[in-house]
Write a structure and sequence with these properties.
- A hairpin with an 8-residue loop joins β12 and β13.
- This protein has a single domain, classed as Orthogonal Bundle (Cytochrome p450).
- Strands 1-2-10-7-3 form a five-stranded mixed β-sheet.
- It is of the alpha+beta class.
Length: about 400
């Protein structure tokens, strides 16, 4: 049933770049494709925008909770239980209850109040970057603002933020041996994050503050507060989600602009296009390659029978280049409208922090383009070895001041 030329598992392929030609082939010839896997029973690869959207909004038939949202199966019962306490691995009604704990903090109205602090962070990072002859854009700009923003929201002390940034990379970028040298690193990173969460919890209980950590500690779900394990896991999720994807989108967005100098020049000439440019960068460079669901019943889809218990994997880079949804989908157009990309997901699990990410990306690009007259790439960007995170490990550039 499989096609030997289609391999979406080999991380080395993704380290070279997203296999868009494979996705185009699948969309045209086999959009609901059975993909063999050496480390599991196989999965259905969904590559069309419509199918990804429909599965995303149907948690009754396609569950996040049954086996989590990772392609890899979690076989340990304790690990699976911990995984299911994360909001992205839950189904209604539990998902809505958990999401409701912090959802009001991430509304467009609530996050708009953060624009001033985010802009100050961006300016400070750029001031330091401009003093150097060359920088690693990822480490010296793209990673700093998101981590400091979510840390500020969580009440994380300044002296712990750099370490949490390093640990979060070890927890989510663990397919790359350059980031995570051994399995022990990941487990130790989780322990250290949990210890940090408990230290913050103790401080908040003694001296309550106005932050997300305090909200998690006092929140109730169906009349009960979060357990220690649930609190730790929620804290870890917010720290990772609050910095990893925005850092990836920022780095990938600049890489895309540098690959399309006509669009970069257009953006410099008309900064009012930055909001739509952000959406097009997200379409062109989705931070997450895929998420998984588990079929809860037999489903017919485009002539294929998806059996109960089958893994169904949604591929966002493919959905975002679907010819049936986007006109000239391989063209990067910062003024594209409409732009119904799926980089923030869809339905029940639409990204909780989408408004914050959009705000951060808009402000960071506004400040970057205002502060620089030219951005010169000094070496090819080094991509993350991962078919989950669409990340850049290093991008050496020279920022020439305006």
């Amino acid at each position: 049933m499989g096609n030997p030329s289609v391999d979406l598992i080999d991380q080395s392929i993704w380290e070279r770049g997203v296999p868009y030609e494979v996705f185009e082939h699948l969309r045209r010839s086999d959009p609901v494709y059975w993909h063999e896997e050496p480390d599991g029973p196989g999965f259905w690869a969904l590559t069309l925008h419509e199918d990804v959207r429909n599965v995303s909004k149907d948690p009754t038939r396609f569950s996040s909770y049954a086996a989590g949202v990772s392609r890899l199966d979690v076989t340990d019962a304790v690990a699976l239980a911990a995984y299911r306490s994360i909001v992205i691995a839950q189904d209604p009604p539990e998902h809505r209850l958990t999401r409701g704990i912090v959802s009001t903090i991430f509304t467009p109205r609530a996050t708009s109040a953060l624009e001033g602090p985010i802009r100050s962070l961006a300016r400070s990072a750029l001031d330091q970057a401009l003093e150097k002859s060359e920088i690693d854009f990822v480490a010296d700009y793209a990673s700093l603002v998101p981590m400091h923003t979510i840390s500020e929201m969580m009440g994380v002390p300044d002296d712990k933020r750099a370490r949490l940034l390093e640990l979060s990379g070890g927890l989510i970028d663990d397919q790359d041996p350059e980031v995570v040298a051994s399995p022990e690193f990941r487990s130790n990173a989780q322990i250290e994050v949990f210890m940090t969460a408990q230290q913050l919890a103790a401080r908040e209980r003694e001296t309550p503050g106005d932050n997300l950590t305090q909200i998690l500690l006092t929140a109730e779900m169906e009349g009960r507060k979060l357990t220690e394990a649930e609190f730790n896991t929620f804290f870890m999720f917010l720290i990772i989600a609050g910095n990893e994807t925005t850092r990836t989108a920022m780095s990938g967005g600049l890489a895309t602009l540098l690959d399309h100098p006509d669009q970069l020049a257009r953006l410099r000439k008309d900064p009012s296009l930055i909001p739509s440019a952000v959406e097009e960068m997200l379409r062109f460079w989705p931070p997450i390659h895929h998420f998984r669901r588990t079929a809860m019943c037999e489903v017919e889809m485009r002539g294929k029978t998806i059996r109960e218990g089958d893994k169904v994997v949604m591929w966002y880079p493919s959905a975002n280049r679907d010819e049936s949804e986007f006109e000239d989908p391989n063209r990067f157009d910062i003024g594209r409208n409409p732009n119904h990309h799926l980089s923030f997901g869809y339905g029940e699990h639409f990204c909780l922090g989408a408004s914050l990410a959009r705000l951060e990306l808009r402000v960071m690009f506004e400040e970057l383009l205002t502060s620089t007259a030219e951005i010169v790439p000094l070496a090819p960007a080094r991509r993350l070895r991962s078919n989950l995170i669409n990340g850049i490990k290093e991008m050496r550039v020279e920022l020439r001041p305006a």
